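Let us work through a complete example step by step.
Step 1: write down the sequence.
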Amino acid sequence: MLFALGFGFLSCEDVVELDLQTAPEKLVIDAFIKVDITQNNDQTIKLSKTRAFYSNTNIPVLNAQVWITDNLNNRYDFYDNSQNGNYVATNFVMDLNNFYTLNVLVDTELYQATANFFNTPNIDEVEQNPNGGFSGEDLEIKIWHNDNIATANYYQLIENSTNYPEYKLSSDEFYNGNRNSFLIFDDELESGDSFEVVLSEVSREYYEYMNRILSVSQNSGNPFASPIGEIRGNILNVTNPENYPLGYFSLQNLKEQTVIVE
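Step 2: predict the structure and record it as tokens.
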């Protein structure tokens, strides 16, 4: 009887695949340039096409031309030597005083966006409390930094204490010119464990863009989940505006630190 009852419960679980309409393919430009001021790493811009909801196959865009220029007429070319849609530059240089323009030429259409770096403040303190959270039993970690009182500022913290990166955003609207902390709660980390945190100051536009992405992915708890709706970034198709791409062009000056659990 137990076997039959268990089989009955299992038989009630059916996988249902809805017959969804597939929208026309769009170009996706993943152009997040992240630079640690202490080193010049290779930079990668990824080009792909949107795919059907149930598809697990990536659709890379090959044979495109990708380059970044700055207001001093320096040019940085990105090459897809591996023919996988990942366009790489080995000579990109960060200058906090310059503005940069992304250029992507696919077939005969040119896509562009402009961005600049911000002077990200240092992480000046990491505070740990083993009796934090609502229950008083979680590890509570505060990542502290100072804020520039002269301007409106927006920040992003990426922390890797779980299986995938956690993104946190902050605006200085309520703490302008004061110290601010990002809060991390965890009930699984143990003494001696370590993980990385990465702080960067970002533009208001990027802050709002990522807020929308995190908002639609809240239910899954995964910022890389398929969004409920289309979220447009800052990249324009200057040849054919109606055929706009998805994705974002962002320049981030990173301040990284390893956190060791006490």
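Step 3: interpret the result. Helices lie at 2-11, 204-216.
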